[in-house]
Amino acid sequence: MLTYQAPPTTEATIQKDHSWLLLLLSLTWLVPGLFGHAPWRNEEVEVLTVIRHMLSTGNWMIPHFGSQVFLENPPLTYWAGAIFAYLFSPWLLSLHEAARLAAAVMMGLSFLFIGMAGRQLWDKKQGRIAVLLLMGSFGLIARAHLIMPEQGNFLGHALVLYGLSIIRTQLFYSATLAGIGIALSFLGGGTVAILPTTLAALLVLFDKPLNSINRIQWTLVLFVTAIPLALAWPLALQEIAPSVFAEWKRLHWDNLSFFLPKNALYYCSMMAWFAWPIWPLALGQLLRHRRRMFEDRTRLILLGMSLCWLWEASLSPEQHDVKAIIVLLPFALLATPAANQLKRGWTAAFNWFSRFTFTGFIALAWFGWFVLAFEMPSKLAARMHRASPSYVHEDHWYWLLFAIAMTGAWVWMSIRPKVSGRIAIANWAIGLTAAWGLAMTLWMPWVEAAKDYRPMLDGLYKALPTNECVNGNHTPTTVRGLLYFYYGVDLTIGANASYCRWSLIQANKKDADTSNQLVWRGSRAGDKKEEVRLIKNE
């Protein structure tokens, strides 16, 4: 796939590139959002509930949501989160914060693999541009700091791309890495990842320099590596629990659809913001080199991979934007050469847009912190307290110093007079990192006070009956999962729940309940619409 020859870099340019700065920026990008807040998003709660069950029972082969077998996702992310939780919780971090370290490690490894792929495909100084483009995408940053099953899939796809990038120089090593990547994609993303990922990998066989023997050798090594690793867990599941394996097969194979037009349209339309600013640069590269697409097949192959992985995202029955993060990988590699090819006018416009956008957001973040810290202006402070009634302002000096450092770094980067395409892309990534960092430090206590389920669940736990089952068929998944995660309370669901004398339901606050069956009601501090009610059935 290595067909592009970049202009030679001068010694002065090499001296200006400091890898430690990229490492520091990556850590700054990864850390904010991992700590300092409880789980409240449904996807993360599901993962943490499964991890809690694995650690408490020692059963790592069959994922459970409470006492119920949970086969929505393969176990790769569960295993990774459970390992980190076992190592670092509770002596250093809480269980959910320790489990999130697995998400940071998987994302960091994905950055490493995509950087090495960019270095192999384009030039030794281009790998960091691919990483900066990923870090600057709107769709990735908000989803990379929570532990979700898709992160294992993301890591597998990044490894596949790196394996494919070295196919000309290290044939067998390339096939081995790509095979491991396909297996990781399956164990992270499920059966929907197998066919598109394999087809994307096989696109490399159309690369001209490979002869027939090399193609056969590479394909054999690929499948010999991928198949045993991918099938190890399903075969073990079939051996120890045949009924569970049959249910997994029914969910993930028998009901698999090969095309869902509605979902494909959803993911294509959301790419306008989700993949910004990667997709305009990638599109520019395709248009710029459209006449040489079949001669220089690198871009054509990356485009094919993008379409295959977009198809993969649309195969899942449910629409969720986090599933589209895999498409950002080939997009980023496709857009990487644009850093050295952007015209001066486009570079200036892109840099001005990043200055305007992130300077405004950073100023807004500091203004909001000032309002909460000093209660000025009083009317605006009152409105913010109404949105998060239980918030009590506390200054955490370490996060405050971090926010000041991020603001200073952004000011220094944004006022530099000479801006190239590489610097403009770096400025965008730094600006988004600074904006995210300030939101996760200055504003996180205020958001946490409104979103945290723990105060509500403490009251609910005291009201729950002891040694009696509670019907959880109509309980929100997040509440049901957190009851098990925090207190070990397992609500009854399914047909047996109809025999329970107690029910936990979700209701609208406007819907009055005047019956004598209502025992307890409560909601999160910032939720003005819905509440949870405990009812005793007569």
TrEMBL record:
Keywords (A to Z) from UniProt: Membrane, Transmembrane, Transmembrane helix
The keyword Transmembrane appears for this protein: yes
Membrane spanning stretches: 20-40, 76-94, 101-122, 128-147, 154-173, 179-206, 218-236, 264-287, 352-376, 396-413, 425-446
Protein name: Glycosyltransferase RgtA/B/C/D-like domain-containing protein
